[in-house]
UniProtKB/TrEMBL annotation, chains A, B, C, D:
<dbReference type="Pfam" id="PF11794">
    <property type="entry name" value="HpaB_N"/>
</dbReference>
<keyword id="KW-0285">Flavoprotein</keyword>
<dbReference type="GO" id="GO:0050393">
    <property type="term" value="F:vinylacetyl-CoA delta-isomerase activity"/>
</dbReference>
<dbReference type="Pfam" id="PF03241">
    <property type="entry name" value="HpaB"/>
</dbReference>
<dbReference type="InterPro" id="IPR024719">
    <property type="entry name" value="HpaB/PvcC/4-BUDH_C"/>
</dbReference>
<feature type="domain" description="HpaB/PvcC/4-BUDH C-terminal">
    <location>
        <begin position="284"/>
        <end position="476"/>
    </location>
</feature>
<keyword id="KW-0560">Oxidoreductase</keyword>
<keyword id="KW-0274">FAD</keyword>
<keyword id="KW-0413">Isomerase</keyword>
<dbReference type="InterPro" id="IPR004925">
    <property type="entry name" value="HpaB/PvcC/4-BUDH"/>
</dbReference>
<dbReference type="InterPro" id="IPR009100">
    <property type="entry name" value="AcylCoA_DH/oxidase_NM_dom_sf"/>
</dbReference>
<protein>
    <submittedName>
        <fullName>Vinylacetyl-CoA Delta-isomerase</fullName>
        <ecNumber>5.3.3.3</ecNumber>
    </submittedName>
</protein>
<feature type="domain" description="HpaB/PvcC/4-BUDH N-terminal">
    <location>
        <begin position="7"/>
        <end position="274"/>
    </location>
</feature>
<dbReference type="InterPro" id="IPR036250">
    <property type="entry name" value="AcylCo_DH-like_C"/>
</dbReference>
<dbReference type="InterPro" id="IPR046373">
    <property type="entry name" value="Acyl-CoA_Oxase/DH_mid-dom_sf"/>
</dbReference>
<dbReference type="InterPro" id="IPR024674">
    <property type="entry name" value="HpaB/PvcC/4-BUDH_N"/>
</dbReference>
<dbReference type="GO" id="GO:0016627">
    <property type="term" value="F:oxidoreductase activity, acting on the CH-CH group of donors"/>
</dbReference>
Length: 499, 499, 499, 499
């Protein structure tokens, strides 16, 4: 079938079997028409459109050896370091078109992580998960399927392991094993872009012990599978999507995050990619999250570009763009933005080929990128607010602006330089407000792909403190010789690195 | 008449002549019943209630020598350093009751600034503004009037002075002088709490030159004066105020900021406190803004307490409040909060008595307090988001939570420790979301009482660089003697300091 | 005897019995003539001189009710909040004269802490330490004695309590009890200004348990007591003090820190102020360290003034003082400096009268001040380095500058604006180098009066998280009423607060 | 001749014609034996040794097409992105061996910049500088010459251009043109590693106008050329190099920076690479400085490794390495270190081939790397000081430690865990002190390769604000279409990019 057109994708999700989706206490009839969800549909559509856009095609399309065809990059298994870099570049470029989180990279990162880990499990256990997974991958690539990935469980009591929880369903688990498949129960939280996807890939969310084996499962299911309930979460300014005028909800692009409840859902064996191999839960988490943290240096620098552009335009409107202190703030925003991006670019080029043939990012740099993303967006937002002025929190509504009696007054009093109509100022203020105070740029930057503490644990494990100590001892002349280059501590998947 | 009860205040603003107020494109019938404005009414009512609350009375009431009676502290002229400290303490305490900006301190700071500056003008010019002002003050104190203060003009082209603007009304100005008073035109932006006030005190917003004299005016007018139009601005999550359930808009406390348009408004002479004395425009701005910056160390540390409390409770619900990295973040939030507060306390105790008998805050510490407030709340917000988790941007709506089919599922999956019902978690998440991402805690902290650059200019002027250089020269043995204590550069109002 | 003149002090320490003091591996003959120690002698002399300096007298002298005479403030027991503020002001002012840590406040803070704690012990135990202490105090005040304070033990294994240490002398302890006194053994580290003092006041360094009671001791001994060995520590650039020219070691003012070894030292009972009352070890630490942290907002802001002055002068020499980015950096340094100072001023004015009649600082603000001091000086140093330029690390030596062949070349090439001789630039560079990279401004700011973690523990304990949580619950409508003002958790000394 | 052994290099600089070098007011006889300069000799020797070290050879040696031989990488012209990455890796690895700035990359960056710019000048002007330069390069490569680079002029009045200076020699200039060459006069400041080099490459330090053409010159001269005077600058703790014991000056590795005075020095035409082509002064500065800023992500992360190792070891000695707050600080240091490194890695892989065939780094990422380096080392230093404790500023001297009477006492009292001898603690404290407070890690990180403001100007110019604004306008629906990818503003050398 090959690459789909955006309209084909929209038709497909409009006409599938009706999934059970709730928004603000009501069940959704058609996600493609619901004001709360349309922005995500549009974001997904942009990813399909990119494959047909001459300016983006080079980034948006890749050759897949698995089906010997071109595929949308969002369904591609990375074959090289260039592929890893293309991911980061594509996300930054698409952010500019979407004005929000593109939402489709979780599924993408999931298939790459499973490509590697199913191969690792098979090698150790003699199982055939990888073959199974490749069949699924071919189906996805041939049909240009929109994927979502679901990792974060609801987790109950944070200090207890899955099998110790008072609520045994606090982590998704197998509740029944059948000849033809398994039945799963539990819930996943904070799942991005799910209702506009066609398939959900489910992965465990943490390291497991043997006693947690019922929780060590990974699988894929269509969204409209019986027993799946999806509750879409709220976000800052979300109800503006229901307003008639477009201005106050600019850029009109929101993502959505949802809770998925698996209320005893059946999964056939051919869609099961991990089943009780508890010792591979952690490698899957770490490989997936390194991939996903790598994405953030791309998409969040893309959102930062929009914020810089909006602040720059507002400064021009006020006639202060060339004031030194404004310029300093703009440059600081650039610096912070490019620093996040640089770390993800570095993570791409220090990627390594894994046993399955897939390229994995450098985990240190990927975690560094994400850790920067947990801090710099708050400062970028603050600087943009500083430039934009208090009007960001006090500007009149678009409805006031359009009121016949008020319009002439606001056109007079809300304008700064006569070169710019007052409406342009209002539009730019709303764009900046909705992006810079939005969940996507703040909360999502902090917690997406794992909270700051998760990256810190991983950076602490990846850095070789013993080696650093030996260098210090050598230089303090406590030890005579600088030791030979010492390799990092062995990890389950280290031995899987080919190159 | 003496201290009013909160219900008396509410009746008063309900039954005044109808002011011309717009919210979301519609004119407001009754501010006390409008869902968008009710939270401000409640905030103001709390300030009246405090005078009758035994626990707060000591802070909320003060003795006024002008009417020889007790007055609500929000209408008090500071008679001592203790009064200055009481202001900061009162604001922190009331923030805890209101859950938002109390909104009534702008008018308070305006009367204190005018008390000082009218006296200064008279001394120099032989005018009688101070007497006029005292009459107004007595009226305010006797009737326990709710005041608003309006300083920020719309400002047009930022790099041009008022008289150079392409739009001559970009700053509020006199357009006509009559025997009985003046007619003013222009607009003020970002005015806090105005529609629930009874009188508006208008002040110039910047230094003026002789050519700007028509803009160097200060006066007071009742809100329902003919020709005044008020357009209430939008804020993050404002439309949640219209939702039926209370949870998603917790704490139900918002402030409002509005644009006031003076469409040729008449002001009688007895309400005019500055008229073309352009050389006093800047002293008024600097004295007022030092007062107002002083307030921020109180009210924003109060909001920070709420954020700390919410984050602490959420950490308990998840069972992680005693984890070291959570504790570290909580303590960091405490440190940042108390540092803001400390600077305002210091500004109180280094206050000085001015020629009019009113105590003014220390301007350096007041500016330091506000500069801290332009930075620390963003970091406090970030730390609270870190603790609360991604759920802050993805939690289901209260409507979903109340849906009969979803409620049992959400009670099961949204709960953490069994000791806490899931609804408590939702409530705390919404409280934290609405405060920590709200205009009041971020944008308002940044721009209220002047943008960061304004404080920097003032700190740079207040610090004696020449003295510091002389100290350095002495220590570098370029100069033999350390100079006698060198006084700061003379400012218009320096000579006005008595003590 | 009354207030001593600086020369009287110098004579006194020159002619005392020779104490056993080591510097760079050699025993010191006369501390007043040793190039390594002279700067400290000078600093101490400045504190004596201040009492006779009309410009400083008001700050430097106070009336003592204990001897009914004026005393040098460094030996004063705080009788009011004004006294607490005077301490902070005095330290800032003296820093400007000394160009370094004044070094005399440790002993001062020790006598104030012991004043309070001896009174607390007596009240609980019926002992008579306070009377004993007052006798000692009178001796100190009457003879205008120079005191040092010693708290930090060498501590051995950090995770073990004193009685668990493999080295039982890792904390100072009683090794013998006699009729006339006790014999102590152990060592104290990082003791400021000790060799130029006349008496050392020793205090425990941490909370103790009953098993540690032999370590719960406090006492005072003259420096030249038998068995005391003092090893003066090294500091950055210390050997420049031996160079002939003065320029490279500008400002010629260094502090010193030493290790004091108590090699079985006898202390008569009248000099023992705590003996095995282990439960008062922690209150003494906390009260002393709050006092001492309060000092840092004064002395470090004083050093920061010098750094600002030096950076400002260097910017003038280069002709860039009015460049916007230089101005921004100078103002940022001012802001950071005044923020540290503000917190100590606030700690003074929120001080409270204790049972002994002595005023104690507000511990929260005092800890906030010190926590700011653990961070801001590094940023102030960085900003000053930014302004000064790379020359700070590459300027030629004064010896090169004075070389007959090189002098004309350096006068030509090292000069910037012709208004300033090249030598002035070199002097200012050296002043800035020695202060901004010195132990006093960096390491001492970080660790003096307790490391950052110590302040964090105390801030965490002083803040009422339960109250904050209750406020949040009230605003989240989980609880109906805001609780009455809740007092902090009771501490041993809380009940000792009178006012 | 090919790759030299380290001893060959040392012999060469020992036996050259005596250059006129001053240290602390005295002329140096033999740089290889002078205690002040030996550390630099050792650093250079390590770069020669690396070419023969099997573990480093792959990084340290490269194939040069210009002489069809292997060369030391420090004299290599980058032929690929892999070469650019190898530079960063090599610098990090060598920092571990040297314990200081390696000092040899300035010359390296200079030859790469001149390779590109001489080619650009020729293309535009029809000159033959590139050929001349290649001849010089072959000489350097064939003889494995140690190069220094000199860019920073003394600059006089910062706000004036070279031709406007009151001192016409404030920038190096041509004072005479002869048939066989030119005579130059002026001085260069803050030149790294120069006295241990054999040739100095001189470049202009800023953009020039036509009137400055006498200053727009670049050339190479041997160090021992007549008329060159070198005055070595002072650094923190430099005089410890003269002390007999090694401990207090650990790691025994310092760099040096010197002022080079060109007192009418003759340069033959074949060594002149730019002569009055003023419009190429700025491209040379920008290309060189981007190269040089790229280096800092390598060498400073290498020094940071040492600091991490020392702090980790000291934490172990105290028995606190596994305490949570220590671990957090160590991980923070790792994060900051790897972020600096990541930006330089990214700058390597986004490098582009220039017209001359040489690969240039990505200038945005290179400037981002350096800007990070102007901030993070101060924070890394602070964190290491926090872990190490106050002992960093108060530890006894090695001479005290070796004193027969004090040694047993210090072995007892200076030890923490019994597993580690006290001397190891002293060694580690000194190593950390000398590196973390040293010029190399602080001042050099701030000002080397250009001050922070220089990077900010360049980042501001490289970022496409107009494009960002257009994206914002598109998303604010002010413009209908997102513009085609817009290229950056054209720069003189942009057209020179091949790939």
């Amino acid at each position: 079938m090959g690459l789909r057109k955006p309209e084909e994708y929209i038709q497909a999700i409009r006409h599938r079997k009706k999934a059970e989706i709730y928004v603000l206490g009501e069940q959704v009839e058609d996600v493609t028409k619901h004001p709360f969800l349309k922005p995500t549909v549009r974001a997904y559509a942009v990813t399909y459109e990119a494959a047909w856009d001459p300016a983006l095609r080079k980034l948006a399309v890749a050759y897949s050896p698995y089906i010997n065809e071109e595929v949308n990059r969002f369904n591609h298994i990375h074959q090289s370091r260039e592929d890893l870099e293309a991911k980061v570049k594509l996300l930054r470029a698409l952010s500019h078109k979407v004005g929000a989180c593109v939402q489709r990279c979780v599924g993408w990162d999931a298939i790459n992580a499973l490509h590697i880990v199913t191969h690792m499990i098979d090698k150790k256990k003699g199982s055939d998960y990888h073959k199974r997974f490749i069949e699924f991958l071919k189906y996805v690539q041939k049909n240009d399927i929109a994927l979502a990935g679901a990792m974060t469980d609801v987790k109950g009591v944070r200090s207890l392991r899955p099998h110790q929880q008072p609520n045994p369903d606090a982590y998704v688990r197998v509740v029944e094993v059948r000849d033809d498949g398994i039945v799963v129960r539990g819930a996943k939280m904070s799942i991005t872009g799910v209702v506009t996807s066609e398939e959900i890939i489910v992965m465990p969310t943490r390291a497991m012990t043997e006693k947690d084996e019922a929780y060590a499962i990974s699988f894929a299911v269509p969204l409209d599978t019986e027993g799946i309930k999806i509750i879409v979460g709220r976000q800052v300014n979300d109800c503006r999507r229901f307003e008639e005028n477009e201005i106050d909800s600019l850029p009109g692009a929101f993502n959505h995050e949802a809770m998925i409840i698996f209320d005893d859902v059946f999964v056939p064996w051919e869609r099961v990619f991990m089943f009780k191999e508890w010792e591979f839960a952690y490698p899957l988490v770490e490989i997936f999250s390194s991939y996903h943290r790598h994405a953030y240096g791309g998409c969040k620098s893309g959102l930062a570009d929009i914020i810089i552009g909006a602040a720059y335009n507002l400064a021009k409107q006020m006639g202060i763009a060339d004031k030194h202190h404004i310029r300093e703030k703009l440059v600081e925003m650039v610096f912070l933005t490019e620093a996040m991006y640089a770390a993800s670019i570095a993570a791409s080029w220090r990627g390594r080929k894994m046993g399955s043939g897939c390229y994995w990012v450098d985990p240190m740099f990927s975690n560094v990128a994400k850790q920067l993303v947990t801090r710099f967006p708050y400062e970028i937002a603050r600087l943009s607010h500083d430039i934009a002025g208090g009007v960001l929190g006090t500007a009149p509504s678009a409805k006031d602006f359009m009121h016949p009696k008020l319009k002439p007054l606001l056109e007079k009093y809300f304008q700064c330089l006569p070169d710019y109509p007052a409406e342009h100022r209002l539009r730019m203020v709303r764009l900046l407000e909705n992006i810079s105070l939005g969940v996507m740029f703040l909360i999502e930057s902090l917690h997406g792909a794992g909270s700051p503490a998760a990256q810190r644990i991983m950076m602490g494990r990846l850095y070789d403190f013993e080696k650093a100590e030996k260098i210090a001892k050598y230089l303090a002349r406590i030890e005579k010789e600088l030791p030979e280059e010492i390799r990092g501590k062995p990890e389950p998947w280290r031995s899987d690195i080919e190159e």
